[in-house]
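Lab notebook, design round three. We kept the backbone fixed and only want residue identities now. Task for the bench partner: fill in a sequence for the structure below.
Input structure tokens:
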């Protein structure tokens, strides 16, 4: 399906890379090669063409949505006869491990902050809302770290509610990929213009309340715009294994690293170990929890084998 074809079955409009790139119009923005190197994640692919063809049009779309949302909020404040209060625009980013969510989040934070209408953009990852390793062990779900039940969802919902209510300062817990655990330090969010929430399960539907009269709320209820990063399962698996192998000579070399004992694995041993983690944890999580939320997103970025976006689906209004 192309832009000119109407399909009444799907709630999405589908764009090829070329069609999407044309939507940038005359909007331009300077991004240096040095910035690109800083923004891209380990083993991810990011270049000038990807910025120009995919991320600049996306940034322009989100900018327009942000402006429209602010105008709607002003109108509602007038209707309710309440003094207008600054409320951040919240963007959610979901998708499998190793698919490039973090790179997308960093790129959006950088590009969106260059619009004078919303220069203050914060990025919060949901890793900090995982239960601590100690608590995961007590609950008997350490082998399900990253699954929906391994997150303190109520804490995340409270954080989002406080941010969306315009609270002057809200704290988010931080996570260390070195120690593989939640930190005592926190990130302070102080009424930014835009908040990007990045995490594998942020588009999960609400859990069933024990009390039928209790209101069911999901994390995505607080999102103004949501993105799902998609790719073939075989490609994501390959990217995951490649990343694990690369980490042997980078993060795993840190003596404080939770995975330091795997730094000296051979290629064959590393591939076998990474495949085991994928089969036990990441693949089931993708199949049963992450991928089923894809069509809840406002926008789906589909990546090809080379880690570059080749198709975009945007929800119809």
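Proposed sequence:
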């Amino acid at each position: 399906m192309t832009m000119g074809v109407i399909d009444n079955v799907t709630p999405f409009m589908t764009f090829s890379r070329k069609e999407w790139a044309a939507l940038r119009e005359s909007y331009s923005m300077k991004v240096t090669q040095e910035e690109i190197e800083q923004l891209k994640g380990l083993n991810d692919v990011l270049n000038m063409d990807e910025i120009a063809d995919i991320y600049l049009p996306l940034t322009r779309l989100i900018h327009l949505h942000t402006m429209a949302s602010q105008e709607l909020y002003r109108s509602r404040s007038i209707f309710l006869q309440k003094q207008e209060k600054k409320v951040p625009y919240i963007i959610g980013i979901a998708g499998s491990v190793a698919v490039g969510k973090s790179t997308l989040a960093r790129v959006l934070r950088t590009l969106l902050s260059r619009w004078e209408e919303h220069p203050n953009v914060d990025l919060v990852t949901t890793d900090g809302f995982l239960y601590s390793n100690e608590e995961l062990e007590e609950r008997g779900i350490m082998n399900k770290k990253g699954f929906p039940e391994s997150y303190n969802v109520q804490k995340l919902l409270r954080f989002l509610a406080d941010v969306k209510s315009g609270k002057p300062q809200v704290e988010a817990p931080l996570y260390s990929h070195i120690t593989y655990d939640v930190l005592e330090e926190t990130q302070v969010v102080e009424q930014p213009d835009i908040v990007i929430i990045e995490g594998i399960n942020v588009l999960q539907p609400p859990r069933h309340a024990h009390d039928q009269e209790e209101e069911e709320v999901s994390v995505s209820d607080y999102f103004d715009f949501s993105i799902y990063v998609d790719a073939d399962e075989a490609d994501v698996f390959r990217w995951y294994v490649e990343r694990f192998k690369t980490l042997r000579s980078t993060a795993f070399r840190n003596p404080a690293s939770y995975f330091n004992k795997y730094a000296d694995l051979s290629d064959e041993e590393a591939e076998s170990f990474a495949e085991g983690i994928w089969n036990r944890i990441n693949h089931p999580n993708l199949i049963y929890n992450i991928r089923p939320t894809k069509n809840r997103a406002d926008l789906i970025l589909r990546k090809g084998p080379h880690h570059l976006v080749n198709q975009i689906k945007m929800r119809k209004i």
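Keep this in mind before ordering anything: Residues 12-315 form a domain with the Rossmann fold fold (CATH 3.40.50.300).
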